[in-house]
Amino acid sequence: MRNSMKFILILLFVSLMLAGCKGKSELNEILIVSSIGIDQEEDETVIHLQVVNPSGQSTMQGGGSGGTVYTYTERGRTIYEAVKKVNNILPRKAMFSHMTCMVVGEEYARESGIAMIFDFVERNNQIRDNVLMLVAKNSSAKEILSLYTPIFKNPAESLNNRVEIASATTGISEGMTEREIINWMYGDFRDPVILGVELLDLAETGNEMSSLENINANNKTYKITGLALFNKDLLTGWYDENQTIGWAMVNDRVKDPFIITEECENEDGFIGFSVKHIKSNVEPIIKDSEITFQVNISGTAVLQELTCKMDVSNPKKLIDMEEQIEASIKEDIERAVEQAKKQKVDVFGFGKMVYEKEPKKWKETYEKEWGREFANIKVDPVIFIRMESVGTRVNSIHEKD
Fold first, then answer.
1. DSSP conformation class of 177
2. Is there a contact between 387 and 301 (Cβ–Cβ < 8 Å)?
3. How far apart are CA 127 and CA 119, in angstroms?
4. CA separation for the pair 243, 338 (Å, rounded)
5. What is the pTM of this model?
6. Do the beta carbons of residue 147 and residue 199 sit within 8 Å?
7. Does 4 reside within a domain?
8. pLDDT band at residue 67 under the 50/70/90 scheme
């Protein structure tokens, strides 16, 4: 009896070990999808699957050939139908588990909306929920994904890196992911925003590898631009870069330094600052029928550029600089709020803040009419910026030491 039990246990153990091989996929049997593009042409959905070419990834390996990535395009009545049609022309099985980026064309975002995208990706167990989402401003997803750029030959890798680098002008170092946008749309009483990507020079595309031989890199690249504003799932408008900074301030999304440039007072010239260590919180104040959101912001600044004569060793001048920065941030926030009101989209989550503070009043008074109430809210930015340093030089180069 004891020997029989040992035999059964050994058999079970061996069976468990063998089960790990079921459903395996070898590297030479799959295509790794790095990004997906989604466009609209007439009444059809157009899907672009960009896959990695392993033999083209490194010039250090002998025998490598072809481009770094290849893009396969198909169309269908739905996203799933178009993806299935793409599978018919792929030489190998598509693997989505390493996908890092999804680009949506502006026309698709305006006409079809992004809700159906999330229905598809949420049902696909290979696609991770931290995929970066971008909207192609004034262009299609195909134009963005077809662009070979200097340094990074894989568009998905290039786009992910550019979001972080562009934080100096947008204030946002981490782009919006699939999971975050879904939470906004369906759980947080707010409308979503997504970073935009825009071709820098529409006249000359860089979809040929030979274009990379041109020393002028600006003719074959794109840039991360302001936020795309959505009413539920439909694109309604855009923020410029300063309004995007204002949005990032209110939502405590500023994690890296960003740049502010202001005119010098009383004479020609400019002052450039690097603003960092930003902390912010928002407090809703509900009094009678009036709602005010007090936005408290603190941070530090470093003088980076001075093109006019100014004695920065004078404490009063430092105070003037601090006030200039505070006024600039306040203007960015106010412009961001006004644009949101104009588009009738609560992209700040103000509705959720009211709900969390006064859940009963939210249900009884504001929930059904929040679109109308949102247009009447007031925002009060309270900003404190401290000059941390004037850099390694005190006087301007226009003055004698």
1. B
2. yes
3. 12
4. 10
5. 0.86
6. yes
7. no
8. low
Rounded Cα–Cα distance for residues 283 and 278 (Å):
17
Q: How many domains are there within the chain? A: 2
Q: Using an 8 Å Cβ cutoff, are 82 and 45 in contact?
A: yes
In a domain, 8, yes or no: no
Q: Which of 238, 270, 304 is the last residue of a domain?
A: 238
Amino acid at 20: G
Within a domain: residue 19?
no
Range of the domain at 281: 253-401
Of the residues 238, 267, 290, which one is the last residue of a structural domain? 238
Q: Is pLDDT of 366 > 80?
A: yes
User: Are 230 and 123 found together in one domain?
Assistant: yes
Residue 138 and residue 165 in one domain: yes
* pLDDT more than 90, % of the chain: 54
Listing DSSP states for 8-33 in one string gives HHHHHHHHHHHHTTTT---GGGEEEE
- Count the residues in the chain: 401
Other CB atoms within a 10 A radius of the CB of residue 43 amount to 9
Q: Which residues of 258-267 are buried (b: 16+ CB within 10 A; e: fewer)?
A: bbbeeebeee
Q: Which two tokens stand for residue 385?
A: 């910026």
Specify the amino acid at residue 200: L
Give CA–CA dist 207/333, Å, rounded. Answer: 38
In a domain, 118, yes or no: yes
Helix ranges, 166-220 (H): 167-170, 178-187
Per-residue pLDDT tens over the stretch 339-356:
999 999 999 999 999 999
At residue 157, what are phi and psi to the nearest 5 degrees? -65, -40
- Measured distance CA(168)–CA(189) in Å, rounded: 29
Six-digit token string for 18? 């063998």
Which residue type, as a one-letter code, is found at position 187?
G
Same domain, yes or no, for 57 and 177? Answer: yes
pLDDT digits 0-9 by tens, 172-212: 988 999 999 999 998 878 999 999 999 986 455 455 555 55
Strand partners, 102: 36, 133
